[in-house]
Automatic annotation (TrEMBL):
Biological-process GO terms, alphabetical: DNA transposition
Protein name (database record): Transposase IS4 family protein
Entry's Gene Ontology molecular function annotations: DNA binding; transposase activity
PANTHER family per record: TRANSPOSASE INSH FOR INSERTION SEQUENCE ELEMENT IS5A-RELATED
Superkingdom of the source species: Bacteria
Residue span, Transposase InsH N-terminal domain: 14-103
Classification via InterPro entries: Transposase_11, Transposase_InsH_N
Sequence ranges assigned to domain Transposase IS4-like in this UniProt record: 181-406
Residues forming coiled coils: none
């Protein structure tokens, strides 16, 4: 818990009903920042202490909580708001240079912020028994404050030498059956997230340049969770992601290594107009890229979709049973009249523990939108739509702090028996 060096007499009881400072109170009281503060104070040594470390830290947290897009915006708020200065522990408004030096110090201690994030995830796991059972993965485009790569590659503090161009393609089907495609391009970075889809809170993250592949970073996220939160991987039951993470190695890893059922949409990768493939070992059974299995009647040649009979964990198969109550003239001579077991190994991209064409798969896939809502809160409630950040190191610090603030607010709500307000990041709920 942060120590708040108060310079004027005030009470949280007087402030909280107004709602403006409640979120800051939650962050200051529930953010596990003691170790970081002690380390920063030790690093400062016996130099000048015009602006104490904790006061600078508290004011930076206030800037995130109150959605200030820049340090200058925060300094203007501190200049006019004596009460906020008092809460942060400041006698005067720090100079822009003081914030620059403090931010550089934070960038040298980025691992401490990651540790703080891990502590918050662990604390929420202890408070919420179901936290981490249903996971969702996605990435978020974050444009750099710079609009394009600099011509001059020499570092001067103003150029962004780290950002790269990125692109994400979105596809869908209209009501009339026609397809649409939208390509979003930007110059900047990517925030890769794994969130708890039930509570819509982050559990793992990385920040990369904009060109980084979602699939490759998906493996990195699993590596990070295995290292930092192995207990959560054991608890997790489902991992949901869009088709950007469609990769046989990633799907196999989820189930084979962690026992997590992947619910990841497929890309259409079959070439030359190929619609179906023959199921190995069978003469009248085919499957399509969406995971549906069909049988052909030996008598008439009519094709029928086989119903899904569930998943047999010990066999590693999905079991489409006989067709949906449809009479088949060639049933007596059909080799799959009683159903067919389909090993996952036939195609790990297509055949998964939860059958793709099942109602359960569709229901689980809807939880993927939890990541989109977390991303939206980062834009709207934490100012990523109008930030002034340049450079990968600064972006990593800023993303880490925002996610820590989000978790600290949620943890405070839970501990104060206000779980229904966990997602209230913008203002108090009366």
């Amino acid at each position: 818990m942060a120590i708040i060096p108060q310079l004027e007499l005030f009470s949280w009881e007087e402030i909280e009903p107004l709602g403006d400072l409640e979120r800051l109170r939650l962050v200051l009281e529930h953010l596990p920042d003691e170790a970081l503060m002690a380390h920063l104070e030790k690093s400062r040594g016996h130099g000048r202490d015009d602006y104490p470390v904790r006061a600078m830290w508290n004011s930076m947290l206030a800037g995130i909580v109150f959605q200030h897009p820049s340090i200058e915006s925060l300094r203007r708020e501190l200049s006019r708001n004596g009460q906020l200065r008092s809460i942060c522990g400041l006698r005067a408004v720090p100079s822009a240079a003081a914030y620059t030096r403090f931010l550089r110090s934070l960038m040298r201690h980025g691992s401490w912020i990651e540790s703080m994030f891990d502590e918050l995830v662990k604390a929420l796991s202890e408070e919420l028994p179901d936290f981490g059972r249903r996971l969702a993965m996605d990435s978020k485009a974050i444009a750099s404050w710079a609009s394009r790569p600099p011509k001059e590659k020499k570092e001067d503090g103003r150029r962004d030498l780290d950002a790269e161009y990125g692109a994400k393609t979105y596809r869908g089907t209209r009501e009339d059956g026609s397809t649409w495609e939208k390509v979003v391009r930007w110059f900047g970075y990517k925030l890769h997230l794994v969130v708890d889809a039930q509570h819509e809170l982050p559990v793992a993250y990385t920040v990369t340049k904009g060109s980084r592949s979602d699939v490759k970073e998906g493996h990195v996220l699993l590596d990070e969770m295995e290292k930092r939160h192995p207990e959560m991987l054991k608890k997790a039951e489902v991992l949901t992601a869009d088709r950007g993470y469609d990769d046989s190695k990633l799907l196999s890893r989820c189930w084979d290594e962690y026992g997590i059922k992947p619910v990841i949409d497929t890309r259409r990768m079959w070439k030359d107009g190929e619609q179906t493939r023959l199921l190995p070992g069978h003469t009248n059974v085919v499957y399509d890229e969406g995971g549906a299995v069909y049988c052909y009647c030996p008598e008439t040649g009519a094709r029928q979709q086989m119903s899904n009979g569930g998943f047999e964990k010990d066999r590693g198969t999905v079991c489409p049973a006989k067709a949906y109550g449809i009479t088949c003239q060639g049933r007596e001579q059909c080799p799959v009249a009683g159903g067919v077991r389909v090993p996952l190994a036939v195609d790990r991209r297509i055949f998964t523990p939860i059958a793709r064409e099942s109602y359960k798969w569709a229901k689980e896939y809807r939880y993927r939108t939890a990541v989109e809502r977390v991303n939206s809160r980062l834009d709207v409630s934490f100012g990523f739509e109008r930030h002034t950040i340049r450079g990968l190191a600064k972006m990593r610090i800023r993303c880490g702090l925002a996610l820590c603030v989000m978790l600290a607010m949620a943890l405070g709500r839970v501990r104060e028996k206000q779980q229904e307000r966990m997602r209230s990041l913008v203002r108090s709920v009366s």
